[in-house]
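Friendly challenge for the regulars: who can give me the structure tokens for this chain first? No prize, just bragging rights.
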Amino acid sequence: MRTHYVGMDVHQASTSIAVMNGSGKLIGESLIETKAQTIIDFLKGLSGEVHATFEEGTQAAWLYDLIQPHVTELVVCNPHHNHLLKSGNKSDRVDARKLAQLLRAGMLRPVYHGEYGTRTLKELVRSYECLVSDTTRVKNRIKAIYRGRGVRTSGRAVYQASQRELWLGKIESAGLRLRAEFLFRQLEQLQLLRREAKRAMLKESRRHAANQLLNQIPQLGPVRIAQIIASVGSPHRFRTKRQFWSYIGLAVVTRSSADYRLVDNRMQKQRQSAQNRGLITNYNHRLKSVFKAAALGAAHSDAYREYYERLVTAGSRAELARLTLARKLAATVLSIWKSGAGFTIDKVMKQAA
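First reply, four minutes later:
Bragging rights claimed.
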């Protein structure tokens, strides 16, 4: 049976495609329109086993659903790890060739796209987070108007509708006052949309069985739980908690050089080689923010205060103790979600001892 390896460099208007056979020979190239039926017709024209790949991007979810039923294997690859694409000549056709080459060699790192059940929740979480970001941006612009005129605006009083006229009266310039009115009206609409988006997100989140399981864990809360479910999809993607820590940016990586030295004509490993330690740099930013914020609150909660204080007493700096607490919360989430067991703080503390 023939085997084809298809590399696709996808753009908004066009898609450059390169096809290699099982021996690595380039047997075809094409430039097609980024359109559903055009892509399907091209793939159907390939006989035998078809292995396809394209890079993660804004169209990745749509393309995955479109292509997956028509190929033997589909890999949505992580562009941050495709260093071969950065070397040599750079063009859409060259990138498609290199993607097909990397796919055939098994050197691509896939991005997870397997859960259809959380697709709606993903979109609702994105909508809520965008509205939160837009609301914060407008609030900062409002305060910047007063700060630029030497008017103190500490706290949230400036945003309250009941004090709107009072704050507008502190602006002497007519044009600037009109601008402030526009920003206040924009803030009101964003706050209304934000509440609606939050209700829709939490309603969809409650439809998932994981919601009740994770709701037992202190300091997570309904919004964070919705963000976790939308980002993870399935906990069985991660075989161990260390893989989960790596995904959410809480894994420690070490880098060393000159680990061995020559002693009496024999190679000997140095006992204390120079190492640089730090957290992994390629991670899910939403989940890292969720677990760091949860750890900040958990450090002062009844459930985890003893564990946090034990770490500080043992000599850990406060920020490192919160990092350890965030890893503990992440491990607890993964364990409860995978096993379906109930949460008991005594069991968690026993494992931490």
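Residues 3-105 form a domain with the Nucleotidyltransferase; domain 5 fold (CATH 3.30.420.40). The chain has 13 helices and nine strands. Your move, everyone else.
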